[in-house]
Amino acid sequence: MPVEDDNTAVDGESRSRQILAGSAILLGISTVTVVFLMGWRHVPGWVGESLGTVAGIMSTPFFMEASFFLLGLFIVIALNIWRKRRAGDEFVSIEIGDPDDRSDRQA
């Protein structure tokens, strides 16, 4: 039978916060990307032309798929590092008995 920890509610809350943080990051980056792709046409001069070139390169299928993959990987790694820092050190000390002590062995 599985044994439930006392930290079940805390773990559920932590998982919800992680999902919320990841979703917020993804939504923010998606919003910036959409604004960039739709708004570069309104920027005058060579800056607008440069942004248009970058937008064209970014929206090609290979680069877009690769950037979504790298973005997702970055979010997962960042949330994992954040979770580990928040959880603290998980060092466990294991006591090993004297190897000459044979009281626990059968003859």
What does this structure look like?
With 107 residues, the chain is an all-alpha fold. The chain has a domain at 15-85. The protein is built from three helices and no strands. The longest helix has 32 residues, at 8-39. It is elongated and about 85 Å long.
Shape: elongated
Secondary-structure element pattern, one letter each: HHH
Cα separation of the termini: 34 Å
Structural class: mainly alpha
Percent strand: under 5%
Q: What are the low-pLDDT stretches, counting only 5+ consecutive residues below 50?
A: 3-7
Q: What percent of residues adopt helix (DSSP H or I)? A: 55-70%
Rg, rounded, reads 26 Å
Main pleated-sheet profile: none
Number-wise, the strands total 0
Compute the average pLDDT: 78
Compute the number of helices. Answer: 3
Q: Summed up, what is this model?
A:
This protein has 107 residues and is mostly helical. Helix content is 68%, strand content 0%.
Spell out the key features of this protein.
107 residues, mainly alpha, 3 helices, elongated, disordered N terminus
Task: Spell out the blueprint of helices and strands.
Elements: H1 8-39, H2 45-58, H3 61-87
Helix pairs in contact: 1-3
